[in-house]
Structure formats: structure tokens, C-alpha cells
Sequence to fold (523 residues):
Amino acid sequence: MIRMLGVSKVYSKGCIALSDVSVEIQKGDFVFVVGPSGAGKSTFIKMLFREVIPSSGQLFVNGHDVGEMAMAEVPYLRRRLGIVFQDYRLLPNKTVYDNIAFAMEVIEASRRESQKRVNHVLDLVGLRNKAYTYPTQLSGGEQQRVAIARAIVNKPQMVIADEPTGNLDPDTSWEIMKIFETINKGGTTIVMATHDKPVVDAMKKRVIAIEKGCIVRDQAKGAYGYES
Amino acid sequence: MKARTVEYFIKEAVSSLRHNGLMSFASISTVALSLLILGLFLIMVLNLNQIASSIESKVEITVYLQDDLSDYEQRQIGTQITKISGVTEVIYVGKEEALKRFRERLGEQQSLLNALGDTNPLPNSFEVKVDMPEKVKLVASALSKMKGVENAKFGQEVIEKLFSLTRMIRLFGLVLIIFLALAALFIISNTIRITVFARRKEIGIMKYVGATNWFIRWPFLIEGMILGFGGALISVILIVKIYGLLIQQVTESLTFLPLIPQYPFLTRISMFLLVTGTAIGALGSTISLRRFMKV
Fold:
């Protein structure tokens, strides 16, 4: 699914965000990426959907070399990925239903297909009854559920989440994690950057810890390992 | 591209136009004004060309004969003129006939001629027509060198003045049109930039869910094209009305002016303006889109 071979990222001012990172993530894995702020987590995550391009080394996502990829191919890479952000990134002027359907519209799915998929993911995140409300009328947790629904509506092979529970209280975070777990059980790979110690400790999934641009720990069924 | 996608593009474009009502209005007005002026200049230049060439094609050369020629000599000159290449018609106008015409032309002031008494100061002459306007000058100079010919004249100055006027209007019009087209381009590209900026969040999300650049571009492109087309449509309506009025006025008072008939002339001008307007719109949005698409 993901293979990094000696990947480094140096930003224009000479800041080294990642240095010679090699890692492999299999299809169906559930991986937490942890580490202090500014350690390179975000860079790691953003590389996976080519918001950031490696300065050196090779990164394969779904068998495609992301660094060598032409601009025109990037949309097709992203169609096989679902991306969830800390700040939800929903469109305030569209209903919940339309926010999710938007992702289907963009890839030119048929209306029937779109309808079927949107209703399915709304059921999955438990928001069928709020389909025609607007994001501003929802709580933070509900908004994040909409964002997750949007991320998975195209049946991606992998969901990439950058601090998805960063703005949520512990109870709500748990609800969100349950949804991710359900998605993962369906065979979808999940890579999640997080600061949420209780969640990571309780879920007992693979943990990759990044510090100063290097992977310092990579354990199956790991724990958060930092004081929160 | 699917029909549903096209529908989506148009819906997005129209909703964005409504959202930016004031800017859209400003863009459409600028395009309308620019194209109105472009259209009017076009009509003016084409009509002046038409008038100039119609005058030119009617040009006759008048060949004045020396006064002391015999009838035989005069007839001989007549036959010689017919033999010059390009000459299609030669009409003899005797002194008496010339005086009669002159009298008619003077109209109410013909009493002036009474002062002349019985003398007729006008020479015998030939009116010569040629087959192509370009030959007028050449034939005239050949005629004036003939023996027994006093001189040969044609309305050269009038035509040349008309042509130089057309040239000046054309040049002035071109400068003005380029300037106005740039203004229209600028304001449309600004309108689109505002739209793009207002929707940058949406564009970002579209990119994350895998929209291609063209998918993102189309609604903006359509928006620009609607602005350009809308402006052009207004200018076309105005031009059709204005030209209709002009034709009406001219046929009532200046019948001799050979203006270009309304149709199909106006249809062509309208098509040209609509295409130009739409192209300006498309170009305007392309300029704005180029900058942000590199994400």
C-alpha cells in the first residue's frame, strides 16, 4: 500500500522535516503516527496524498511513485484516498448530503450511484436523519462524521487522517474512533496522525513515532509513549 | 464529459454570477460598451469603404478638347479614345450641351450666365468611362497627352480624401478597440479572481477529493464566457437598433449615400461581436485561473 524508501524532505529555508525515512504499510493496516509537534508527522501525512513532494528518496502509494507523478495524475491518486482533516473542511453553504455528494460529483459518478453511496455512508456514520441540515447546525463530532463520510464515499483503498480528533472532547473522539475502526474492518487501510494518547493507548494498533524527522519507534499493538 | 457534469458546471457558474451581482454587472457593462464601440467603428469603416468604392466605380474622365478642332478631328479623337484599353464608353458632349447642363446645375442662379450674352466659354468634351476604377488614373494621363486634347480630369481628390479619412478612422478605431478590449479583459479576469478567491476553500476540497484541474476550471470558464457573451448581446441589440435608425434617416434625407443594407451585414457583425465577447470572457478567466491552479 505505502512504501517509503529513504525519503527526505527539506523545505526551502533548509528546515529538514523528514530525514531518510523508510517504512512500509500493508493493505488493511491501521497505523497511528505520533510524535511531538513539529517532528515531521504532518509532512509524513501530506506526502501520502502529494501535498508535499519528497526532496529525495522514493515513495510508492498504491504502486505509484508519488515523487515522479505528473500533475495530471494527482487527482486520480487522490480518488483512491480519503482524506480527513482536523478542521473538517466542510462547505458551509451545502447540506450534509450535498457535502458528501460533492465528492461523487467531482469524479463524475452517476446520480443513482451517488445517491446509493451517500445514503450508505450516512448510515455508516449515523447521520441519515441529519442529511438535509447544514454543517453550522451540527456539533463538532457530527461535522467530523460528515467529513469521514465524504472521505469514504468513493470507496478509497486508504483513509488518511490528520489529527481527526484534535478539536473534539474525549467522548466524541471515541465515537469517531469507532467509526474509523468499522471502516478499517471493511479492509480499508487507515493512517492517522494524532496527539490523542488515550485513544492510541486503548486501541492497540501499530504506532509509528516520529521525532526530529526520523522514525524512532515502530511497534505493532503499540502505545502513545509520550506524556500528553 | 457527461451531461450531468455539464449541468453541474453551468449551475455552478450561474450561481456564482448571482452571488457576485455587482461585479458581474460591471463586467457585462464594460464588455457591452467596448463591443458597442468596436461594432460602431466597424460599421463606420465598412460603410465608408463602400461609399468610397461606389464613388470610385462611377468615376468618369472628362476630356476637354482644344477649341479650334474641326468636326472630323474631333470624331477622330473620339475613335482613338475608344481604342485605349479599359475604356468602355465614350460620349460626346458638345459646347451647347455642356452649357445647358451647367445652366441646370446653377438652378436659381442661372441668371449669372446671362452676363455672358451669346458667347459660350465651355469647350467641347468627351465623357469617358473605364471598366475598372484602378485604371482611371492611367487612362486619364494617356488621354491628356493626346493631340487636340486640352486636358483630362476626374474626381481624384475626392476619392483620395475619402480613403485617407477611412484610413484615419480605422487607425483611431483600432487603438481605441485594443484599449477597450484590454479593459474588458481586465475587469472580467478580476471578477473571476474574486469568485475564485471566494471559493478557494471549495477548490481546495475539490482537489483533495480528486477533482481534475479541468473539472475545477470549467465553471469559472463558463462564468467568464457568460459575462462576455452577455455584454456582447447587449452591444448587438444596441447596434442593430442604431443602424436601423441610421438607415431610416439616410433613406429619408440623403438618398444618394450608398449605405450597406441591414441584412446580412448586421447578422455578420453580430456574430463577430458575440464570438469576440465570448472569447474575451474565456481569456479573462483563463488569466485568473492560471495563477491558482498550481496546488
Observations:
- Chain B is about 75% helix and 10% strand.
- The longest strand of chain B covers residues 87-93.
- Strands of chain B lie at 60-65, 87-93, 125-130, 149-153.
- The mean pLDDT of chain B is 82.
